[in-house]
Design a protein that fits this description.
Structural class: alpha/beta
Number of helices: 7
Radius of gyration: 24 Å
Strand content: 15-25%
Distance between the termini: 70 Å
Helix content: 40-55%
Shape: globular
Strand order of the largest sheet: 6-7-8-3-9-10
């Protein structure tokens, strides 16, 4: 039996009068590296915020590690990395991590551990404001790794990184999963799909696929995930177009029938 770290059912989110997520559902297996892929603006970050428990929702349910999303019991069990680095520019790398460690109640040894995990050994005393964008992102990731959380929600953690560092981080993600952690990693770069054990593909606030990379390629007959994504999106749009045409035809037929009935009533008078 599969154990799920995250269960999303009928999730609906509305922002600014616009429906961002409309009744979506998903399951994320414990100990997996799941990729959340889709174009910018499709709702990936909103879904992640809902899982973390910081997004106002308008329907549905999200359960994380057996609790409703945002439950106080999850505070030290879930790590979250936003797209924008969430660290202090006027503090050094180690000062930032010692601060977050104090908030979480972890040890100084834990600070040294996460610095090594994200490849910042030797840069501990550097001011974060003087680091490159990729290095600042790694400091944010290190902060999320403090305390060894069971679930990591990582919003585009590899964007802007060079290929070598991207590979090293993906190796780290899989090592964390092998040790029992669950990771949800978002990206708009489809070539990162092959690094994931499972995929959630999103488009316009909907999940268009929930499967393994190999199964998606087999189902669509595609050779790459990007091609598979396009096949799925085009099939979905064609289906919606056919449905709209059928609905239109049925409405037209109903109108014609009503008109004919009224005419017959008028004639009988």
């Amino acid at each position: 039996m599969v154990n799920y770290a995250v269960e999303v059912d009928g999730l609906r989110v509305v922002r600014g009068g616009r429906t961002v997520l409309d009744g979506i559902g998903a399951r994320i297996a414990s100990g997996s590296v799941t990729g959340l892929l889709g174009p910018s603006g499709c709702g990936k970050s909103t879904l992640m915020r809902a899982i973390v428990g910081v997004q106002k929702t308008f329907g549905g349910a999200v359960h994380v590690l057996g609790h409703p999303a945002g439950h106080p019991a999850l505070r030290h069990r879930v790590g979250y990395v936003t797209q924008a680095p969430s660290v202090y520019a006027d503090l050094s790398v180690v000062e930032n991590l010692r601060y977050f460690s104090a908030v979480l109640g972890t040890s100084r040894e834990d600070v040294a551990r996460v610095i090594g995990q994200v490849g910042l050994t030797g840069r501990e005393r550097d001011l974060v404001g003087r680091l490159s964008g990729g290095q600042r992102a790694r400091v944010s990731l290190a902060a999320a790794l403090l305390g060894a959380p069971e679930l990591l929600i990582l919003d585009e953690p590899t964007v802007g990184l060079d290929p070598v560092l991207r590979r090293e981080l993906w190796d780290l993600f899989h090592a964390l999963a092998a040790a029992g952690a669950t990771l949800l990693v978002s990206s708009h770069v489809m070539d990162e799909a092959s690094r994931c054990g499972h995929l959630l593909l999103m488009r316009d606030g909907a999940i268009v696929a929930d499967d393994t990379p190999a199964a998606l390629l087999e189902r669509t007959g595609a050779s790459e995930i990007e091609e598979a994504f396009l096949v799925l999106v085009e099939g979905r749009e064609q289906g919606a177009s056919r449905s709209a045409s059928i609905d239109g035809a049925e409405n037209l037929e109903a109108t014609a029938t009503a008109t004919a009935t009224e005419s017959m009533k008028g004639s009988s008078r």
